[in-house]
Amino acid sequence: MNDTIQSVNPSDDSLLIGGANLHSRLFVGTGKFSSHEIVPQVLEASGSQVVTMALRRVDWKNPQENILNYMPPNTILLPNTSGARTAEEAVRIARLAQAAGCGNWVKIEVVQDQRYLLPDNWETLRATEQLVKEGFVVLPYMSPDLGAARRLQDAGASAIMPLGAPIGSNRGLQTKELIRILIEEISLPIIVDAGIGRPSEAAEAMEMGAAAVLVNTAIATAGDPVFMAQAFRLAVTAGRMGYLAGPGERRIEAAASSPLTGFLQEG
Amino acid sequence: MNDTIQSVNPSDDSLLIGGANLHSRLFVGTGKFSSHEIVPQVLEASGSQVVTMALRRVDWKNPQENILNYMPPNTILLPNTSGARTAEEAVRIARLAQAAGCGNWVKIEVVQDQRYLLPDNWETLRATEQLVKEGFVVLPYMSPDLGAARRLQDAGASAIMPLGAPIGSNRGLQTKELIRILIEEISLPIIVDAGIGRPSEAAEAMEMGAAAVLVNTAIATAGDPVFMAQAFRLAVTAGRMGYLAGPGERRIEAAASSPLTGFLQEG
Amino acid sequence: MNDTIQSVNPSDDSLLIGGANLHSRLFVGTGKFSSHEIVPQVLEASGSQVVTMALRRVDWKNPQENILNYMPPNTILLPNTSGARTAEEAVRIARLAQAAGCGNWVKIEVVQDQRYLLPDNWETLRATEQLVKEGFVVLPYMSPDLGAARRLQDAGASAIMPLGAPIGSNRGLQTKELIRILIEEISLPIIVDAGIGRPSEAAEAMEMGAAAVLVNTAIATAGDPVFMAQAFRLAVTAGRMGYLAGPGERRIEAAASSPLTGFLQEG
Amino acid sequence: MNDTIQSVNPSDDSLLIGGANLHSRLFVGTGKFSSHEIVPQVLEASGSQVVTMALRRVDWKNPQENILNYMPPNTILLPNTSGARTAEEAVRIARLAQAAGCGNWVKIEVVQDQRYLLPDNWETLRATEQLVKEGFVVLPYMSPDLGAARRLQDAGASAIMPLGAPIGSNRGLQTKELIRILIEEISLPIIVDAGIGRPSEAAEAMEMGAAAVLVNTAIATAGDPVFMAQAFRLAVTAGRMGYLAGPGERRIEAAASSPLTGFLQEG
């Protein structure tokens, strides 16, 4: 494998969210890793500039063990409200995170369903409305639905994070059609969050026009998480480039890439 | 996009075909480009070490216009027998290519069907048998079928090149199940050739365990072929790394990546 | 084709909605047909007991042309609120339908999106809450989402009608994963509405455990709508029977259905 | 479920194979059933006119237990050469079947691969050539490939039986694209054999234009095989009718089936 590419980064292709100008379109999560030690290597290998983390994972009483210490400099922390079952709980977690010095970004995650951990769009909208008013940069995790996305947009969300499949399922873009419509109809960045299990699936989301993807389980449960983080990094870039390069049309029949006749007559 | 990755190339992951030790797993074709001028840029951007070309495309009477002049040094030329309808025609083209100084690699392409340009496995096998005897490094393009692949292997082919979808269709891995079986049951390298239309599809083929992919139309018909070649380069590496990293299992239900309870009680 | 089956109707497999005991699990719509004359033939061929209709289609000033005249006896009319953009408009349409003698069933359809005609789950919920209070049997058309379905259930809906794909697209079960989860997690009947374009897709929805399907465009735009209505009738029954019969498990490898060895030795 | 349809059988839609005029397009197999007793009920429920059976299953020494006794009158027996690994073995089995009074139809099944039980197209072709010469009505089971199908057609096969997925896998139409091409390019009847696991998948094959399907494992491994046989019977008819009725086109965007505006203004 030989990937010392020099010139693939058009300087104007960055993602603007909450005032930040992101060059990486791979967001990563920090859950499920077998040890804290591997997390910084994964973060570095991913090239990610936005890292999400459940506040529960922060070991407040044991600061030297704190995962926050492993965050690379210049990385944006995106605390999530995992564990919240209502808007009020999500708001409370967000405020605690901010008070603890985690900044003003927040990924809203409100889940009432315990089997598929699907986000509740109603509570998510209410939490978004409140936290935007309080000055947070709000990225809501949501069940892909155009009406919900429109309301989240109107409420001031900075991006929309629809799921591709249930969290941790590694099952890819099961909701592809709805995500396609969100990308087409919503002007906010669409960040596919949850379900992506393979680098190819991340690339496909980007080719569809997603602004970014968030990956956690697929990296954390890989045989070699650091290597898998690199794989996702390349895949996200590849998918983004594929989108920008303008893919050719699909055809039902064949179209010769080599001339079909004439060789033997002229050879 | 920020991809100045240093350490993703495990020195032991190379592809051995016909005595060559390949670091790139992206083979590219040279058909369908709007101009000769863009080809060398595409080849360089792709990082490819194996380039296929129909002999018809070589302008023997006008050597300074010859596409062979654009081949980067240290690139292996893989002449293809495009235009052949029988084993005999394919053998004749291969010999002419060799006589013209194109080396001893050959991609056998024997097509009798004019609508889908599907390869004929019978004629392909006969051509393979003959050309292996003559000392060629033979890579047969074939319709994915286990029995045919076994015979090509027994005949001394150096790799097997099943199609993902009809040539030039950009429709991806339509024959996924059969290719999966070939990868599992055949010990030769499996190189997916034809049909791949998006970087994500190339990545998926690699994640399945394909040894390499050959891409032509998807690059040639892209809005920016050079940029698309880079996208495919990254995607192939990403897919290969995903395969090597050992993907996590897929699950029907969700599995929390963040803890679901306990935060508020302990906050 | 020979389908004079006698004994396929277990007497206990009926669908109970709003006090009605339905034997047919195919609901049909009356839009888009080239002429009024064909509608009664389609209705009869479909065997449907529930027929949806936009009130606008009723020609109040020209009663003898009225499509209501074509309704077979013992068929339940399911007026829909097509054209409504808000809950209030939907409620108003439902009341008008009831006042006009169309009964107390209503399919709520509130659409704000003009390109994909996707239902708005928020307005749909509000209309459901109101109309249930007024004694209607409410069947809301909705964008598949577990949280929305739970709220509609709590509000007293009689069934949930998630879309498979945008109305009129004939693109099948694009939202399969979300519908699967609704079937598993919601105790109300799940009726797949919109998008089903082929009999096989209706059968698949039934095999997944859907309680019924609603089909309109696929029948109305077929070359022979009457014949297609019969095809859907059989497909829905086939899918339901497949579900009840208990399908065998899927396997990655083969499993011989015939013995593989021993014949020649013993023959 | 109410399926006493009267007029769905256009008298001119029959399938002509080997001189027989078939009204049922569902072929069934007799392997894997838990007991002999259930087989005649399954055959009757399926409405099938062609039944395949491995000769090994015939208990020659115990004639009263013989499955042949259970065959409904006017059913065509299609002995298969299951267990054969070469053309010669297949030919020998076919001759034995004929000598034993099983008629002159034969399904050629030559398998060398023990994991996926994939048919070997080379040996299958050789057996076809020989048995056609001997006057058999030959239906070869094959790995879907256009070149192989053309050769089988030229050799005098009466139909082509490509697999949808490995035998007994219940995984459906994994080879859909190749089967689609066979249906388009080959003038013989295409009968999808192996892999079909659900009634909806049988319907889909028929909608694609397959002439018939052969189902065994999906029925034999169902919770209620007799009921599942009825389900497949209806599904095959539904799919065939869907094909004949002329399906409407698929659209990316929505198309209203009900009028979107005007109601409230006129109500």
Can you characterise this structure?
The structure is a homotetramer of 267-residue chains. With 267 residues, chain A is α/β, with parallel strands linked by helices. Chain A has one domain: TIM Barrel (Alpha-Beta Barrel). Chain A contains nine helices and ten strands. Chain A has helices at 38-46, 87-99, 121-133, 146-154, 176-185, 199-207, 217-220, 225-245, 263-266; strands at 15-17, 20-22, 26-29, 50-54, 76-80, 105-108, 137-142, 161-162, 191-193, 212-215. Chain A has a five-stranded parallel beta sheet. Chain A has a three-stranded parallel beta sheet with strand order 6-7-8. In chain A, helix 4 (146-154) links the parallel strand 7 and strand 8 (161-162). In chain A, helix 2 (87-99) packs parallel to helix 3 (121-133). The radius of gyration of chain A is 20 Å and the shape is globular. The two termini of chain A are 37 Å apart. Mean pLDDT of chain A is 87; it is low at 1-9 and 260-267. At the C-D interface, helix 2, helix 6, helix 7, helix 8 and helix 9 of C face helix 2, helix 6, helix 7, helix 8 and helix 9 of D. Chains A, B, C, D: One of its GO terms (biological process) is thiamine diphosphate biosynthetic process. Chains A, B, C, D: It is found in: Cytoplasm. Chains A, B, C, D: Belongs to the ThiG family.
